[in-house]
Amino acid sequence: MRRKGLELLPWTPALRQWQARIGLLRQLDLANGGASEWPDVSDAALLVRLEDWLLPYIGKVSRLAHFAQLDLPGMLATLLPWPLPQRLEEQAPVALAVPSGSRIRLDYAESPPVLAVRLQELFGLADTPRIAGGRQVVKLHLLSPARRPVQVTQDLASFWAKTYAEVKKDLKGRYPKHYWPDDPLVAEPTARAKPRGQ
After folding, report:
1. Which of 44, 62, 84, 121 has its CA 20 to 30 A from that of 99?
2. Is the separation of the CB atoms in 59 and 146 below 8 Å?
3. CB-based contacts of 134: which residues, under 8 Å, 6+ apart?
4. What was the pLDDT predicted at 97?
């Protein structure tokens, strides 16, 4: 395993996100000069500690192909003692609720984590969402109705105040049937072309 690497194991995108979520919380703790309750689950750390977390599960592995059949989610879950799994969901959630009512998945592969959301779903939201108990601002990829990026920001308040008017002009021309209010802070958020009743 040390020669071939962890890629022999059945990693999924969801497991890589789990790994990145824990890594983010650990990094935030260590950046503040303290210790972290979050274990190091980076590939490098997992390779160093193979005997601790992998050895109990590989008794029946006789060929490299057998590694792909292991219950990797179950094996990795043992690395988080209670109550850390619950705290992981609270501090680094898989998805965030936005003002439109949608739950949008975060992408933890980037730092800071990315929330790619249609602009109209954030109407009424004054500030950029935060995670990790308020310690981490997410990076917003504000999307057009066609889900194309129109702006990337970590400062939603500044976007509304300084940039929205220009972006609105462009989007209103390209998507005239959609709702583009003059004041996005008091507008009704929507996941549809227009709010109900308009």
Report:
1. 84
2. no
3. none
4. 96
| Rounded-to-integer distance, Cα 194 and Cα 196, Å | 6
Cα separations (Å) of 7 from 32, 53, 59, 97? 32, 16, 19, 33
- Say which residue the tokens 């109550």 belong to: 83
Residue 106, amino acid: L
pTM: 0.88
Q: If you ran DSSP here, which 8-state letter would residue 194 be given? A: S
Closest CA to 125 of 99, 143, 145, 150: 99
pLDDT at 192 over 80: no
Report pLDDT for 114. 98
For 3-30, how does the pLDDT look when each residue is reduced to its tens digit (9 = 90+)? 777 888 889 999 999 999 999 999 999 9
Q: Do residues 155 and 128 make contact, with C-beta atoms less than 8 angstroms apart?
A: yes
Give the span between the Cα atoms of 140 and 125, in whole angstroms.
Answer: 12
Q: Do 96 and 109 form a contact (C-beta atoms < 8 A)? A: no
Query: What percent of the chain is predicted at pLDDT more than 70?
Result: 95
